[in-house]
Automatic annotation (TrEMBL):
Domain of life: Eukaryota
Name the UniProt record assigns to this protein: Signal recognition particle subunit SRP72
Gene Ontology biological process terms in this record: SRP-dependent cotranslational protein targeting to membrane
CC annotations in GO: signal recognition particle, endoplasmic reticulum targeting
Compositional bias per record (Basic and acidic residues), positions renumbered to this chain: 239-253
Chain intervals with Low complexity compositional bias: 267-283
PANTHER family: SIGNAL RECOGNITION PARTICLE 72, SIGNAL RECOGNITION PARTICLE SUBUNIT SRP72
Comp. bias (Polar residues): 199-213
One Gene Ontology term of the molecular function aspect: 7S RNA binding
C-alpha cells in the first residue's frame, strides 16, 4: 500500500547524564588500557580529563608525572611537582639531573640522605652525576656497592655492569692508557707541556707577485665532450623530439596506416582519379552490363 504521508519522527528522549563517579571510572578504565599498551600521549590526555573533574586526585597526578617522565618532558614534570602537593624529592632531583642542573640535584640528594629516606634510586642518580662530573673513582665505588646489593639475574644488574665497565675503562685510560699512547708516539711530555700549541695566523694582505712582467702560462684547452664516433658536419644531428613521447611528436610513424597494395585506389583521396576511366559499352552506359551480369546469375 503506497504511503500517503511520511511518518513524523518521534523525539528521542535525552539519555540521562552519567554521574561523576561513572565518568571517572570510565576514564580510569581507559587510562589503564592505554598504559598497558604504552600509548603514553593518549594516556596523558586522559589524565588531564580526570584532573579536570577531580583536581585533587593524587593517583591521576602521579600517573601524569610518570607519563611526563616517560615522554621526557622534564620541565612540565617540574611544574606539576611544584603546583601539586606532591612530596617527590627524588623525582624533582631526577628532572634537574636531566635538565643539567647539577648543583640543585646534589642539594636534593643531600636532603634525602640527611632525612634518612634515601632510596636505591638515589645511589643510581648520584653515580650518574659523579660520572658526568668525571669523578670516576667515586662513581666506581657507588656502582660496586650497587652491584653487591642487587640480585644477580635482572635488568638492574645488567645496567650496573655496563655502567661499571664504562667507569673502569675511563680510569684505566687515565692511569695507563694515556701514558701508553704517548709512549707509542715517542713524545717528550715535559716539552709538550712547556710549549703551547701555535695558532696559525692568516694575513689579509694580497699575495705578492714575483715577476709581474712574466706572462701567465696558457690555460689548457678543455677536453671535448663529443663522442668519438661523431664527426661534425657529417654525422646527422639527433632528432630534437627524441625526448617526447611518440604520440606527441610531429611525425609519428605509428599513426601512418599500413598501405594497401598499389592500384585499387591505394593512397588516393576523394576527388583524385587513379588509373584509366572505364569506357562505356556499345549498348550505351555501364548499367546494361550490370543487368547482363545479374541475368547470367
Amino acid at each position: 500500500m503506497p504511503q500517503t504521508a511520511s511518518k513524523q519522527r518521534q523525539p528521542v528522549a535525552n539519555k540521562p547524564q552519567k554521574s561523576l563517579d561513572e565518568r571517572v571510572a570510565l576514564l580510569f578504565t581507559s587510562l589503564a588500557a592505554q598504559l598497558e599498551g604504552a600509548h603514553f600521549r593518549n594516556a596523558l590526555r586522559n589524565c588531564d580529563r580526570i584532573l579536570k573533574l577531580l583536581p585533587d586526585d593524587r593517583d591521576a597526578a602521579e600517573t601524569k608525572l610518570y607519563l611526563l617522565l616517560q615522554l621526557e618532558q622534564y620541565e612540565q614534570a617540574l611544574e606539576l611537582i611544584s603546583a601539586f602537593p606532591l612530596d617527590l624529592t627524588f623525582e624533582r632531583a631526577y628532572c634537574l639531573y636531566r635538565l643539567h642542573s647539577r648543583d640543585e640535584a646534589f642539594i636534593l640528594l643531600e636532603q634525602l640522605r640527611v632525612a634518612g629516606t634515601q632510596q636505591r634510586g638515589c645511589e643510581h642518580l648520584e653515580a650518574q652525576l659523579r660520572y658526568r662530573d668525571t669523578a670516576y673513582d667515586e662513581c666506581l665505588k657507588l656502582y660496586t656497592h650497587l652491584l653487591d646489593t642487587c640480585p644477580e639475574d635482572g635488568d638492574e644488574s645488567d645496567d650496573i655492569l655496563n655502567n661499571l665497565g664504562a667507569a673502569q675503562s675511563y680510569i684505566d685510560f687515565i692511569n695507563s692508557g694515556y701514558q701508553g699512547a704517548i709512549h707509542e708516539l715517542n713524545l717528550d711530555v715535559s716539552k709538550l707541556e712547556a710549549s703551547p700549541p701555535t695558532i696559525a695566523t692568516t694575513s689579509m694582505t694580497a699575495p705578492s707577485v714575483s715577476n709581474p712582467g712574466k706572462p701567465s702560462p696558457p690555460r689548457l684547452a678543455r677536453k671535448s665532450r663529443i663522442p668519438n664516433h661523431v664527426v661534425l658536419g657529417v654525422t646527422p644531428l639527433p632528432d630534437p623530439e627524441r625526448w617526447l613521447k611518440k604520440r606527441d611528436r610531429t611525425k609519428d610513424v605509428r599513426r601512418a596506416k599500413k598501405g594497401k597494395k598499389e592500384g585499387m585506389g591505394a593512397g588516393a583521396t576523394q576527388g583524385v582519379a587513379v588509373g584509366a576511366a572505364p569506357t562505356p559499352s556499345a549498348t550505351g552506359g555501364t548499367g546494361a552490363g550490370k543487368k547482363k551480369k545479374k541475368q547470367g546469375r
